[in-house]
Design brief:
474 residues; FAD/NAD(P)-binding domain; 7-stranded mixed β-sheet; 6-stranded mixed β-sheet; globular
């Protein structure tokens, strides 16, 4: 594990470009190969979410690499969800009861561009675009590529290969095809896919809805969400079953059917989407899947990071943040070896990294599935709304004593995903039990004294559930 080694990174997306930047800052020589054109000069957003939610874990990684301020310049704060019913009525639900806690809508391409530009400022980094990885020889750390421009194939030798090539990772594919070691792998898809649409800005470039919220149209079997963009538009995403229910992607094939669907279910959104037919029929349907695998590394030769190791569905807004946190955790592992002045090698680093990281990426994958059902089924439920109101009041009045599951995941970078999942689930169960049993008041205006009683009951019930869960796991 020496800085003079040649490191090959396959994939220059968000995780790969941040990793390249951070390794370059540590003095490593880095070669990066990306199948797509340079997104700073070519529009390659078709079919992929063009904006994402950036929160504290992501900012921690960007801060580590010295690019947090540049990222914040292109962020739009979103302070909560704004739910839309079928009659066009709306109600808001804040993300936190504490001041200064919000998520941010950010352009995937613009952020990726910032990271690429910062990485290229280092002489020890070279980024090669239009180079599709065809295969990887993990035993000899040799990757084979095809140049998209001239169709010429070529090979690249490296000392270490990092696979940050997304959910369809070629490096991960090599793990199970080459059969050099026991490799566990699962890829599970939701029965729903997604399609992106657009609400344009008005003639003055102003947002036509509140830009301070993530908008949700929850409809049980399907839902619509919208995130604001810097140019005044909104990226709208429809989540819908492929072939089940009255409405699905397979049967919405004509302008009449598409229009009727939106008129019945999302009339206020339809009024803001002028090109619904063309966008719906021409934009692709994307798949929603979860990838889990182990181990992530092979000897001291290769390792998977980001979506290549743990792709998740987008419903907690943590996909990018989790991949960025991979870089933070990996950097901390390198620091630990340096502090102990251990010579070590890449294999020991890789194993130490996966040991502390795997349970957290499994946790956020499971939480993202949970949030899918919460967003489409529960956010408009009266019981859920009561629970959320109490949580916001507890966070506002006891900001250092109570953290909702969402806050632990999204706003507390020092709580692991695994801990947030276990405690958050127990806390949710405790609150819902107390509300259902009328053990706590649900009035809209509880005094601080009443809320303190609620807090103690929730904490006690949560601890009891956690202890039960701990015993059950044994």
């Amino acid at each position: 594990m020496k800085n003079k080694e040649n490191i090959l990174i396959v994939g220059a997306g968000l995780c790969g470009s941040l990793l390249a930047l951070r390794l370059a800052q540590r003095g490593f020589k880095v070669e990066v190969y990306e199948s797509r054109p340079d997104l700073r000069i070519t529009d390659i957003s078709a079919g992929r979410s063009i904006n994402l939610a950036l929160s504290d874990r992501g900012f921690k990684a960007l801060r580590l690499a010295g690019v947090e301020d540049k990222a914040r310049e292109i962020c739009i704060p979103m302070y909560g969800r704004l739910m839309h019913d079928t009659k066009g009525n709306t109600f808001a639900s804040n993300y936190s009861g504490r001041e200064g806690e919000y998520i941010n809508s950010i352009s995937r391409g613009d952020l990726n561009g910032i990271l690429l530009t910062e990485a290229e400022k280092h002489e020890n980094v070279n980024i090669h675009f239009n180079s599709k990885c065809i295969s990887i020889d993990i035993e000899n750390t040799k990757a084979r590529f095809e140049n998209y421009n001239n169709k010429v194939e070529f090979s690249v030798d490296a000392d270490v290969i990092f696979g940050t090539d997304g959910a369809g990772s070629i490096l991960r594919k090599s793990y199970y095809l080459e059969k050099k070691f026991l490799f566990s792998y699962s890829q599970n898809y939701l029965t729903h896919g997604y399609k992106e649409l657009e609400i344009p800005a008005d003639k003055n470039g102003i947002h036509l809805m509140s830009k301070d919220h993530l908008h949700i149209w929850p409809r049980g079997e399907y839902m619509l969400i919208a995130l604001p963009n810097m140019d005044g538009s909104f990226t709208v995403t429809l989540f819908l079953s492929y072939d089940e229910g009255e409405y699905n992607f397979n049967n919405l094939t004509s302008e009449e059917k598409i229009t009727a669907f939106f008129e019945n279910e999302f009339p206020d959104a339809l009024a803001l989407i002028p090109n619904i037919k063309d966008e719906f029929l021409n934009n692709p349907v994307g798949a929603l899947g979860t990838v889990k695998c182990s181990p992530w590394s092979y000897q001291n030769k290769t390792i998977l990071l980001g979506d290549a190791a743990h792709a998740i569905v987008p419903f907690y807004g943590q996909g990018m943040n989790a991949s960025f946190e991979d870089v933070t955790v990996f950097d901390e592992i390198l620091n630990n070896f340096e502090r102990r002045r251990e010579v070590g090698n890449w294999e020991t680093v890789f194993k130490a990294y996966e040991k502390v990281r795997k349970q957290d990426t499994d946790a956020i994958a499971d939480l993202a599935i949970d949030n899918f059902y919460e967003m489409k089924d529960h956010v408009a439920n009266p019981l859920f709304k009561q629970k959320r109101k109490i949580e916001m009041d507890l966070e506002k009045n006891f900001p250092t004593k109570y953290f909702s599951k969402y806050s632990m995941v999204t706003f507390n970078e020092n709580i692991s995903y695994d801990e947030a999942m276990k405690k958050g689930r127990a806390q949710d169960k405790a609150l819902l039990n107390l509300i259902a049993d009328d053990d706590i008041p649900t009035s809209l205006d509880m005094t601080k004294e009443e809320l303190e009683i609620v807090l103690k009951k929730v904490q006690q019930e949560t601890n009891e559930i956690l202890e039960e869960d701990k015993i059950a796991e044994l």
